[in-house]
Specification:
single chain, elongated, mainly alpha
């Protein structure tokens, strides 16, 4: 550390290194990655279970679930793309046809 640093900065850097080195070594360990993958797997399962239960409850009440809305949005997007494609085809056909009655 340079000698011209303020005392408070030296203290902060020393505390950061005291805490940071063990944390960095723990984060690089094999155990950390195993714990993280297990936590992610459990979270996905729990999320899936909650989503499934809420979907069933909403369907019992004859209400749409998020998955239903997602499917409808995808279907609407496909319909919009097809409509745009058909509009372009019609425009191209109109441009290629000779106009009747124009001299």
């Amino acid at each position: 550390m340079p000698a011209d640093q303020p005392l408070w900065l030296k203290l902060i850097l020393r505390v950061e290194r005291t805490i940071g080195e063990p944390v960095e070594s723990a984060v690089r360990s094999e155990t950390y990655f195993e714990v993280i993958s297990t936590v992610n797997r459990v979270r996905r399962r729990a999320s899936g279970a909650v989503e499934g239960a809420s979907r069933r409850a909403l369907h019992v009440l004859n209400l749409p679930a998020a998955s239903d809305i997602r499917r409808m949005r995808q279907q609407l997007a496909r319909m919009e793309r097809r409509l745009n494609q058909l509009s372009e085809e019609v425009s191209e056909m109109d441009e290629s046809e000779p106009r009747a009655g124009v001299r």
